[in-house]
Amino acid sequence: MKYFLRFLAITSFWLRMLRRAISGGNRCLKAGILLLLALCLIPAALWGRGRSRGSIQPRCPSRLNDASFLMRPASRCDDGAPFLVVLVTSSPDQFESRSAIRQTWASERWFGEARAVTYFLLGHGRERQDWIEWEGALHREIIQGDFDDTYYNLTLKVLVGLEWLCCYCPSATFVMKTDTDMFINTDYLLQLLSRAPRSNLFTGYIVRSAAPIREKTSRWYISKEEYPGETYPPYCTGTGYVLSTDLACRVWNISGTAPVFRLEDVYVGMRVAELKVEPVPIHFKPVFFSEGAPFSICSYRRLVTSHHVRNFEKLLYWKALQDSVGERCPGDS
Ligand SMILES: *[C@@H]1O[C@H](CO)[C@@H](O)[C@H](O)[C@H]1NC(C)=O
Ligand SMILES: *[C@@H]1O[C@H](CO)[C@@H](O)[C@H](O)[C@H]1NC(C)=O
After folding, report:
1. Is 175 helix (H, G, I), strand (E, B) or coil?
2. Which of 252, 253, 272, 274 to mutate to test the pocket of ligand 2 (most atoms within 8 A of CB)?
3. In this structure, is residue 132 part of a structural domain?
4. If 81 and its partner were Cys, which of 100, 127, 171, 280 is the partner (CB 3.0–4.6 Å)?
5. Cβ atoms of residues 140 and 118 within 8 Å
6. Are residues 113 and 207 part of one domain?
7. If DSSP codes are grouped into helix, strand and coil, which group holds residue 192?
């Protein structure tokens, strides 16, 4: 208000002077006013140019030339850093899976002060693009890259997610990558991560000494040209792995120069190995399952991931877990 009044006063003063100068015909006054106007306009113009240049530049330089964002939700990270960002790879037509996930494990979860937030990663929606845009505007958690949404572009999809994390949500402590056919016990994961090291962490269902599949008919076929080695470095299956944000962003940072390898989980394992970090279990008991774990309240309370969980099962399991909070399980202390 104060500035507004001052602005009004100054403007009216100048208008009065201008009118007097134009009608009065005092050459000296006219020249003086023009000079002053010019002096005011030059810094304003420079300031404006600086501002617009600033807003065009991304917050951090992209590593992925061919994967600009089609949709990038306003970050929920600026108003309070999330402890965990969950990135779910999803294809454009999986509307129902995303809906089931929103109603269950991706609803905003807290463990004390630690918050988990979930985003979906999608490629181009093609004929469904209009729907995706509505969905994104409504839920504001769809990160969409400008590339074909195919299985072989999965590595690119994950890298787009990491780019979003590192450029728009670097305040997060951990990031998890998972898929739509998964059940994630977000609450238990938050609890485990609250005791985990906050840098150089890579955890999940760890696979060691896996050999590349050389049969051409397989979905996971890898030629000798693509990967000449006998075995892959240790990696965590794409069903659900967690990286501390510092490590995730170092992976993203060195990915600009590495050839993209289409098995996304192996790719992340290779980059982590390049950074001389080893995957480690997060608990002495297995908690990440890369297959489906049969449901019981007590077993699901103490797991982080279960695979092949259909949408109605997500809803049932989640409700059973929420309804039984406070009930004891064998072995609880
Ligand atoms: C990945 O996406 C790009 C860009 O849309 C496309 O040109 C390419 O064919 C896709 N690759 C595969 C293997 O689907
Ligand atoms: C990113 O990688 C470059 C080399 O490719 C390195 O010089 C730089 O320090 C890295 N930055 C981070 C934040 O890791």
Report:
1. strand
2. 253
3. yes
4. 171
5. no
6. yes
7. helix
User: Which atom of ligand 1 lies closest to the CA of 150?
Assistant: 14
Closest residue by Cα to atom 8, ligand 1, is 148
CA 309 / ligand 1 centre spacing (Å): 28
Q: Are 282 and 240 in contact (CB under 8 A)?
A: no
Compute the average pLDDT of residues 127-140. Answer: 94
pTM over 0.70? The answer is yes
Residue 32 banded pLDDT, cuts 50, 70, 90 = low
Do 20 and 83 sit in the same domain of this protein?
no
Pocket flag, ligand 2, residue 253 (CB < 6 Å): yes
Determine which of 44-58, 102-116, 168-182, 263-277 has the lowest per-residue pLDDT on average. Answer: 44-58
- For residue 157, the domain's CATH number is 3.90.550.50
Q: Residues 26, 146: one domain?
A: no
**pLDDT digits over 294-324, tens only?**
999 999 999 999 999 999 999 999 999 999 9
Q: Are residues 120 and 184 in the same domain?
A: yes
Give the closest residue (by CA) to ligand 2 atom 1. Answer: 253
85 within 8 A of 175, measured Cβ to Cβ: yes
Q: Is residue 15 part of a domain?
A: yes
- Domain hosting 121: range is 69-323
Residue 65 has pLDDT above 90, yes or no: no
Which atom of ligand 2 lies at the shortest distance from residue 256's CA? 5
Q: Which ligand is nearest to the CA of 68?
A: 1
- The answer to which of 38-42, 145-149, 150-154, 263-267 has the lowest mean pLDDT is 38-42
Q: Could you tell me if 76 and 43 lie in one domain? A: no
Question: Do 232 and 142 lie in a common domain?
Answer: yes
Q: In the chain, how many domains are there?
A: 2
Q: How far is CA 125 from CA 122, 151, 162, 217, 321, in A?
A: 8, 14, 20, 28, 34
